[in-house]
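Box 3.1 A note on notation
Throughout this textbook, protein chains are presented in two layers. The first layer is the amino acid sequence; the second is a token string describing backbone geometry. Keep the layers aligned when reading.
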Amino acid sequence: MAKAKAKKSGLSKVNQILFIIFCILLVGTIAFVIISPAKVSKVAEGGSEGGSEADVDSAVIEEFQPGTYGGKEFATVDDVVKYYVEVFNYNKTLTATYKEAGETKNYYKLLGDEDLKVASLLVDGKENATINKLVPGIMGGLFKGSPKGLPPAANRDPQYDYRDDGPGGTQLSQLESHLTADDVLACNVKDNGDGTITIQIQPKAAELAQADQDSQGRFFNVLGDITSTVAQITVLSFSQGDANDNIKVTYKGGYGEITVDTKTNEATKAYYIMKVHLDITHANVTIIKDKSATMDLEYTNTFPASDDFLMKSREITRG
């Protein structure tokens, strides 16, 4: 029983690591920018507050055009989403034999990698060149990607692909997609001319996305509630309010694409990029008072994972 618990909590551990990365970079950058102001490289255009344009949820992929693609007719966005769900559900039934550390395992046939990077880190609207150089090393030391199934996914093994933080604290299976047309901001379909089509989907923006509870949580491996984690950092406090008042987490602008053999509904490759904007205000770090900071994260999943990634991450080989 203990072994099953360890496996099913894999994604939760990844999310905790993401929180830790954010907190380390945030606290470290606030301190470094204040202590070493001469090394500040530039002020971001528009400052750290963003503005009305930053709040607009805009499509970053092409608009849907009704038509027949790969022998399948798509008249509406609802048709595209329904087919995506069908493909997702089917591919979560497909397994293959792998070797992990010499032991035979049955994992998802289509396994992907995961990667995380900090796209932007600002304090009071400013970025620091020295901190930017340190970020890759910090990330590499804390975040180690592992193979997973199509997102949302908690594991590479179907029998452990569930989470304990579903709606209302329920256990949430990730073997079926619950995505709906109402969750989608934009989508499109492309005929590749070889019997496959590629579907792109961009879910609507969401604040503090939760697993299976909103548009982002039904499409990506979302981070969950970061405010409770940040609130536990003893060196961080707020000059006004608390973590809930001063931390804003926005999921916006990410999308996914999946290439499918329409004769079999089997996915041959896929790519997902989830974009997260974290905004913190009125932060106090020891003697440093009332600072603001923003951080942009990009979390990606690429399918199929390379043989090199499988080996380096978990000593996994195919076949």
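The longest strand covers residues 266-285. The CA atoms of residues 25 and 134 lie 9 Å apart.
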